[in-house]
Amino acid sequence: MLHSKIDLNLFLVLVTVYQEGSITGAGKRLHLSQPAVSHALSRLREKFQDPLFIRHGRKMIPTELCQTIMPRVRSSVAELESTLRSIGEFDVHQYQREMKFGFRDILESIFFPELAMDLLTHTPNITVNSRQVSHVDMEAALENQELDIVIDVLSPTSENIQHTLICNEHFSLICRQKHPILTNMSLANYIAADHALVRFKDSAVNTVDMALAQHGVARKFALTCEHYFAATSVISRCDMLLTMPNAYARLLKQKMPVEVVPLPFDVPVLPVHMYWHKQAVHDPLNSWMRTKLLDIAKRVIPASQLTI
User: Do residues 190 and 235 touch, judged by C-beta distance below 8 A?
Assistant: First the structure.
């Protein structure tokens, strides 16, 4: 049973200080004075018998207890707020918030040109912060609200993480214009060439090389790096070949003198999913953003790869 002397507004203050990282920032967002925010925190500190935040320079750093309870507190506050919003229509302009994404650079290049222009034009109150996140860190980042949404290849997750398939990404061959292989596209010529490989720090088994292994052959690599843009810049000036996701390859073709063609062998498609924590299910802004990203996928990803 909830203690009868607990003011639920205190938890809204707690969440806002956590999000803003400062008492001053929380006060401005809640239209409260700094002493009022400090007083609210003092009341919660007394109830929890914990400082909840420790000042470090200008930042308020959450304690271990605060970080432990915060997912449940945020979920509960969002649920209570949703009961009021459900009475009327959702209006995204009522929110001023930074949406935090976990995107690799390849996905930023696909989604952000459309997303950024849309937000700047229609909802400048919503800003975006994107960073790369490893598969092993993804779930914790979503649970701790370090990230709101992640888009990446299919990965195993717990029941706390919800996800939906956005597309099945195909692989294509990208090479310089007038490359000799364009006149005789064969597996033998593909294997005979030097290749560039883009490898991420936390990448799993390479599906392309697994497909080649089924034919009893392997590629030879003359270059290994972490970014497709850099690799494409190199192969546009020499006879190296690059195998990469088709959607991004077609974007790079618009910027560099390269050709994008089908591979001379079959490679399994790469499922790309959008992930969010179950505590964000009732967050109307998170839901609104997920819908927007799905709509963008329909516009920028070739129809043959879409599964939505």
Answer: no
The structure's pTM equals 0.66
Q: Matching CATH topology for 9-85 and 171-268?
A: no
User: In the CATH scheme, what is the code of domain 92-168+271-305?
Assistant: 3.40.190.10
Q: Does domain 171-268 have CATH number 3.40.190.10?
A: yes
Residue among 156, 263, 256 nearest 208 (CA): 263
d(CA 8, CA 63): 21
- Give the CA dihedral 133, 141, 284, 123, nearest 10 degrees: -50
**Burial per residue of 265-282, b for 16 or more beta-carbon CB atoms within 10 angstroms, e otherwise:** bebebbebbbbbbebbeb
Do residues 87 and 226 make contact, with C-beta atoms less than 8 angstroms apart?
no
For residue 96, give both structure tokens: 């001023």
pLDDT tens by residue, 149-160: 999 888 888 888
CATH 1.10.10.10 fits 9-85, yes or no: yes
Question: Rounded to whole angstroms, how far apart are CA atoms 213 and 216?
Answer: 5
